[in-house]
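Batch manifest, entry 17 of 40.
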Amino acid sequence: MPTDPYILKKENTISPPKGFFKKLKFLGPSFILSASIVGSGELIATTTLGAKAGFVTFWVILISCLVKVAVQMEMGKHTILTGETAMQAFNKLPGPKFGKARWSVWLVLVIMLIKLLQLGGIVGGVALILNMVFPQLSVAVAAFMVAIVVALMTFKGYYKFIERFSIVLIALFTTFTFLALYFLKFTEYTLLWSDVLSGLSLQLPTAAVAVAIGAFGITGVGADEIIHYNYWCLEKGYATYTGPYEDTPEWKDRALGWIKVMQLDALVAMLIYTVVTAAFYLLGAAVLYAQDRIPEGYQMIESLSSMYTDSIGPEAKPVFLLGSFMVLFSTLFAALAAWTRQYADLFGQMGWIDFFNLPQRLKSISILAWVMPMLWATLFVFIKLPVLMVISGGIVGSILLLLVVFATLQFRYQRTLPAFTPSKGYDIILWISILTIGWVALYGLISLV
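Output type: structure tokens
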């Protein structure tokens, strides 16, 4: 890889791999997103929705995972064709400017500030686990310890380490979750096909609307993950290997080849996190809903652990605590790595730093890697409601999705090069994704009024 993947140079181009198995070697950006998704989306928001609504909202989770990937791929395609960072691209959207940044960049900043609550909830979840294992350690002290550890691991920001560590962290707990789902058949919470099918009836109880909208914004790839995909595609090298734009057949072939690799990356990860998310949801619906047990406050982890102890047995609790620690920590780790890049990019578009000056960017990322987790921990210590904090982040994430959709439409219809005009089938899938996102957001607003 070149020294700076954010600066495209012709001498760094590489021909895209041919064949399915050769392409697999270049996958990775979406797996970092998966690590970021699993803790907040699957472990907390998904199971909370299942606990609150039962099986009836299973369809919300499936649609959430499946439909947003088309928007993610459009973001990845734009990244490869232009080499622009996410906020650089957002700063070219139509609309007024305030200083050096357009309204869209300022809106992202405001929403991401609110989403600090979401990560504060995740820090709280990890702190609660540590407190259960080490009662002599107060929850507040544990929260700041977690913040320090995740900062230490992230502030250098090496892509390969982030990618590999993210994958390892979620693999073991995913396996354990499927085992827990399997062992339900030996308990009073046996999962029936009729239960699963009842969740595909497109019903949305009024009492579950807020949690459903929050879960939709946070499960699968959320708005912030779609934005973060830009940075991981750049750092993986997709745009670098394509090179700066040239009106030549060779450049177009390279770009098309790397776009296909990116699409495979997104699709493989989508299949994985959709199946995992479904398993988490069904566990919550089968066990927690039957017990009328909603995860909340400092009892969140204790409530979630019952999904495993009631299906596998009391001996599963230590394994659950280890696994949930890993999965929540993976979210903090992957999210912090992405947030530091996004905020540095935001500051660059606002003229506060030169994002494309490598020393300045690395310094900004290092400072943010310490500041952000401390803010997360502080918010949790004061608010003390981890589930509410996570769901709140999901709700504003749904609003951010609407901005991402607007950007996607601009990328597709105003900035796509003629040689890369997609097929009608692709456009149909993209519009299904866009309309579904808009429908869920509108449905949620109407239901909440």
